[in-house]
Amino acid sequence: MVKTTEKKKWQQPGVVFQPQVYQSMQRGIKQLVQAIAPTLGPLPRIVASQRNSNSKPELFDDGATIARRIIQLRNREEDMGAMLLRHTLWSLHESAGDGTATAAVLFDNIFDHGVRYITAGGNAMRLRRALESGCQAITEELERQTIRLHGKHELARLAEAISFDPEMGKLMGEIFDIIGEYGRLEIRSGRSLALEREYIEGMYWDGGILSRAMIEDARLGRAQLENPAVLISDLAIQEPQDLLPLLEAALQADVKSLLLVASEVSERALSLVLAKPNRERIQVVAVKSPALHIDARRGALEDLAIITGGRAFHKAAGDTLNSVKAEDLGRARRAWADPYFFGVLGGRGNPKVIRQHIASLRQAFKNLSEADDRKRAQERLGKLIGGAAVLWVGASTPLGVELRKELAERTAEAMRGAIRDGVVPGGGVALLNCRKVIEEKLHTAVEPDERAAYNILRQALEVPARTLAYNAGTDPSTMMGQLALAEPGCGFDIVNQRVVNMAEAGIFDSAAVVKSAIFAAVHGAALALTVDVLIHRANPPESLQTG
Amino acid sequence: MDDYVYQLAAPANFGCGGKICFAARNTGLFRSEDGGQSWQSLYDSLNLAEPLPSMAIGVPPNFERSPRLFAGVAGGILRSLDGGQSWQNSDVPKPPPIVAALAFSPNYENDGMVFAGTMEDGVIFTSNRGDNWVSWNFGLLDLNTLCLGISPAFANDETLFAGVQSGLFRSANGGRAWREVELPVGYEAILSLALSPNFGSDHTLFAGCETQGLLVSRDGGETWQQLGQDVFTDPVNAILLAADFPTNPEMLALHSGMILYSPDGGASWTPWREAELAEAEASALLAPLGFGAGQPVLVGLADGQIIQV
Fold first, then answer.
1. Please, is A13 exposed, middle or buried when counting C-beta atoms within 10 Å of its C-beta (0-12, 13-18, 19+)?
2. DSSP at A543
3. Which of A203, A537, B149, B204 has the fewest CB atoms within 10 Å of its CB?
4. How many CB atoms lie within 10 A of CB A263?
5. Nearest C-alpha in B relative to A152
6. A387 contacts B139? CB cut-off 8 A
7. From the list B138, B164, B179, which residue is nearest A387 (CB)?
8. How far apart are CA A423 and CA A430, in angstroms?
9. How far apart are CA A457 and CA A128, in angstroms?
10. Optimal mutation site among A152, A154, A333, interface B, most CBs of chain B within 10 A
11. Which residues of B are less than 8 Å from A226 in CB distance?
12. If contacts are CB pairs under 8 Å, which of residues 178-197 in chain B contact chain A?
């Protein structure tokens, strides 16, 4: 809570000029980085946060969440620098899932040295351009270092390197070996202390069965249909007679079982299909149309129609069941429904059309930049690929479960990136290896601003490795000395405190995460260096209000 | 009922003291004790009212020590523990699948793994020598499986391929997940597969298409080349490689009832044993000891006959 006098000060309008701008921004950035840096590496320290004196402290080891919790600094100018970094880190977290601590220490170092250079007379805009050009060279060098991982053992080692949780690493390796980069993984709270996984074959959606009377085998707790026809719709079926054209079309086509997907089916309409004589002729299982969001629902119905080779009936398009024909119904080998979900296996849609649909969604996924849109597209793709994994996360306390679930989410996101874009040597070695290309650029650079930028980057590339060592209680300078004498491909195994071949030891980082982290840090810091004036408004923006 | 030979199979010791071979036919499953001279029905013990078409026959690599047999039929998989004298239904996923292909892990004796390609239910597999089968089709986006090909180095690389109605899929983790293999012929039905005996090192495999001829990949399926484009205009139903391929680059391809021979790994093709097979419409091929000079080749015909060439 901000005190009243400080609150008043916060509300005063004002304009702040150099050198106060840089000095205060630097202090703000440092506060954030000092809170996040201890979490970098396999031997991290924990950050605790408490909302108020009555609540339990929350424990974090993830840079993005820590940054998210720091919603305001006491000093308004310092706050501006901190919030600039906070925004950079959160965007990175949303796009890459990890790498925020690396980005934070890089950002801080680049900003520090940049300020020093500009204060000594350098040009901020030219420095920014050179920093961004150097970042491009680093990204290309990281691309050269990138390798692909295959098999559950390699993936497990990567997952362990991301999560620092051997049990989670092992299961994530197995899961991602099966589901691949786009596959569907649900992370749910478990009932035991351990982690457990389950695989579900086929596609399934949220949208449970509309009447438990349709579950014939109560022991199983789900209804099962063999060779069903599928009515795909978001229609609200109120009257029994609304169903008659559908049932007639199905019976004429010799359909023995029907999965009826609708947004609503009234009790009266359900009683028609549940009547014993009708059930003997055709077994109907009615389920709720998937998804609440209108776009998500439309997408889910489209996917279901393509998978089963049927037609989707949309309420918004004025569709009704009056004109339904047998060929409008989708077909599948099996379908099931329980109180929460329904699924189909072996949809009879045209496999070529299904694959073309998946290819177009993959293309669309690549072009999406918003995290929520990417997540929705990813979920759609995961369903279409035909199967899902469920990871049940257990721990000794509810807080522990939540922490471990967050860790699992982050690990999963980073794993997807690693499978999609490959991996690079871990422990900060990939970035250390990039010093060479920056040194080459430095040798050929003539402009002072350009030379300054490459010098800044060369130093910054050492910072993640040094921070890792520091966090593990190792002297960073000693470690750097050992690495200077080591063979190419070697790095410092922080856990075992020795120099090893990183590939042989299986110490990797997701290439996508490292690339995203360096990009976010360099571009964020370079932009921050061009800030010359701060303007305070009378009322702080809503997003800065304490929550 | 018209007869037709879908598949032929023989134990690994064929020719080395044994001359047992099996034929999966439209009229049932048959066994020969004399290298294909005479055949006896193996379904007599089932007392069937009418013949049970058998599309696939599987003879495990350790048949001479443990005479198990698997037969793929419409409705599931039959298993015999006594070389075909008696049969039992295997526990397969519902609804009952139509089994079109069977493939054994080369390490079957230890891992007990058998894969079955089904017409509508993708790939099902057992890891307990057929006691029960489970379906496992992550990523297999077309469940109409027509053929399977398993790496001879499966114990190490866990690689197998599934030819489906609209292309080819590969699993690099023992069938736990499948990924589509991009072919230069689009969404083409893959009817036959043959993996080099040295697939673990040469990464060579051949795929027979329905309308686009024969394809070869020398990098485990990453890139493909079309072979004999002027020759193959109809379905390529079977491919046989020399036992020591690619040292000996000879191979046979069953192309629309006719057997073609290539002496050079598929670069050139000529009709094989034209005089002997002039009137015959071949439907299945088996070289129990591997294809090569002087080694027997059993040819199943579209009228149910089986001849040794």
1. exposed
2. G
3. A537
4. 15
5. B173
6. yes
7. B138
8. 10
9. 12
10. A333
11. 94-95
12. 179-180, 187
Nearest by CB to A355, which of B136, B173, B180? Answer: B180
Q: Does A112 contact B at CB distance below 8 Å?
A: no
| B166 contacts in chain A (CB < 8 Å) | 351-352, 355
The runs of H, that is alpha helices, within A75-206 are: 76-96, 100-119, 124-145, 151-163, 166-179
Are the Cβ atoms of A201 and B140 closer than 8 angstroms?
Answer: no
User: How big is chain A, counted in residues?
Assistant: 547
Per-residue pLDDT tens listing for chain A (547 residues) = 445 666 666 667 788 888 888 999 999 999 999 999 998 988 878 788 887 777 878 888 778 888 888 888 888 888 889 999 999 999 898 888 789 999 999 999 999 999 999 999 999 999 999 999 999 999 999 999 999 888 888 899 889 888 888 999 999 998 998 888 888 899 999 888 889 888 888 889 988 999 999 988 788 889 999 999 999 999 999 999 999 999 999 999 999 999 999 999 999 999 998 888 888 899 999 999 997 788 888 999 999 999 999 999 999 999 999 989 999 999 999 999 999 999 999 999 999 999 999 999 989 988 887 777 888 888 889 888 877 889 999 888 888 888 899 889 888 988 988 888 899 999 899 999 999 999 999 999 999 999 999 999 999 999 999 999 999 889 999 999 999 998 888 889 888 888 998 887 878 888 999 999 999 999 999 999 999 888 888 765 555 444 3
Q: Which DSSP state fits A56?
A: P
Q: Does A177 touch chain B (CB under 8 A)?
A: yes
Residue A469 to residue A462: CA distance in whole angstroms: 11
| A198 touches B at CB < 8 Å | no
Mapped onto helix, strand or coil, the DSSP state of residue B205 is strand
What is the least distance, in Å, from the CA of B140 to any CA of chain A? 7
Q: Could you tell me if B209 and B188 are in contact, meaning their C-beta atoms sit under 8 angstroms apart?
A: yes
pTM of the prediction?
0.78
Q: What is the largest CA-CA distance in chain A?
A: 90
Q: Is B223 on the interface with A (CB under 8 A)?
A: no
Q: Is A44 on the interface with B (CB under 8 A)?
A: no
Q: Is the minimum CB–CB distance between B230 and chain A shorter than 8 Å?
A: no
Instruction: Name the token pair of A219.
Output: 């022991």
Contact B239, B279 (CB under 8 A): no
Neighbouring CB atoms inside 10 A of A34's CB total 12
Contact map slice: A 437-456 vs B, CB within 8 A = none
Domains and CATH numbers, chain A: 7-147+426-544 (1.10.560.10), 161-201+387-421 (3.30.260.10), 204-349 (3.50.7.10)
Within A235-340, strands assigned E span 236-237, 257-262, 264-265, 283-288, 312-313, 330-337
Cβ proximity of A337 and A209 under 8 Å: yes
Instruction: Please name which of A12, A86, A42, A95 lies closest in space to residue A375, comparing C-alpha atoms.
Output: A95
* Helix-then-strand count for chain A, H and E: 22, 21
Helix (H) or strand (E) holding B70: strand B69-73
Tell me the DSSP string of B229-264. Answer: TTT--S-EEEEEEBTTTTTS--EEEEETTEEEEESS
Amino acid identity at A47? V
Using the Cβ of A352 and the Cβ atoms of chain B, whether some distance falls under 8 Å is answered with: yes
Interchain proximity B139–A180, CB inside 8 Å:
yes
Handedness of CA A313, A317, A321, A324 (dihedral sign): negative
**Is the CB of A150 inside 8 Å of chain B's CB atoms?**
yes
B141–A151 CB contact, under 8 Å: no
Find the CB nearest B141 among A152, A201, A386.
A386
